[in-house]
């Protein structure tokens, strides 16, 4: 199917796999929305030179549904599938531009607030009975939206209220948990904290969740103590304090609470709130794992996967993850799902990946929900269902997962599974960006740069690109260079443009490589050096960048940095043209006429 870009007028060949997707015009780099039936394309405008393709800007938003992968409970950026249009080639579903990202990471997942099945927290019978509720500094923190403020006519017993919670009847359980919590029931306070933290039956309120965990913990309830420690470790609803986290984990562990014992062992492994002692941490975890504590098996598995205090042993890691997963540990269920999806330590099996992601998602694991959404979006292991994918992404986004918020914003920006709504897209991107998510910062910058859904604002675009770039996002590094090259939100500075393009290129970003190559090619902001230009173009060509193919072709045509070779030049023009690069088409047409 061929159509004309509505802005630059160039004829574009549209592959069938781009139906309903976003991609940049390979000639003018304008973001194009391609109709699902390939009948039309729509977009704003950008311009492009003709013979050599100059600096290019990314035009598409980035999405990572199932892309930040928790490996051993770790948030992993490397294996992300970014729904991003490569600026000079028709690549929408493409790997992250980072060079050879590692298949595993060693950053650990933060502990989660959850009571595992089969283990009930306890109250220390000799614990000092401190006030049941936090200090009386106003009742606003206790307000629970979505339910009546008044207590139910007849409050259920704590066992009945907890059963409603475990049956996932959160809205029904909430009034009773609130009433019991106000009367000083430590167990009810703990479950009310879970409801507030996970938006179960009410809106999410981390501050209120922390206060109820505190009330429960101060009465000696081990579940409240453990989850209060989690709040201190993660900075959830309070100021982060590793020392207080360890102290409260220890209090809960002293009561024999297995999850807390595992967390104490993990603190020694990481040096969280206590002097690091890997051997002691492993000793604690091994004993707890032998006693059947799922969380201990999870942390041991992580140690074997990453060689922390033990020889790296993926087979042993998989076995331990599976043992913990079968005992209901949601993090381990996620890991098994991920291993099946990627074929790490297990034969690749998308259907099994869906099974395990679903198990973890049912227990509230947000990354599992996110990755399950990706399976539905791509039809991997399950029938494709964009509506279901959007529903799952929303579920994780509303519980505060920045990655899911980015993905939900992307759904709204592109109309995937939801009606297109740029206001909603902006709101979700902003929410994730406020939590420091680099992809969200980048996508917001794109909206401000192109005026997509918001008034064009170069200053805001530059600042957001810079925030993402400071986190190492290679696309953002390239775009900061673009800002300096074009005076977008900052004074034009050719040397700064070169410096930022170099940072992007050093991370293996094909646009950064091409743009830095262009600078060396024409001697802009740097001393002209054709050989360096050729090397950079070649690196981008190897990643499929069509603009770099065209520019390398001009080097061969004119003998710049390489022996003159017209046949090689035409070959490169032809390859770039086949990828939709209209500048290359013009160059190819010029030679065919002769």
From TrEMBL:
SUPFAM superfamilies, per the entry: HCP-like
Transmembrane segments: 68-93
Pfam families per UniProt: Sel1 (PF08238)
Keyword tags: Membrane, Transmembrane, Transmembrane helix
Region (Disordered): 110-138
Protein name, UniProt field: Sel1 repeat family protein
Species this protein is from: Blastopirellula marina
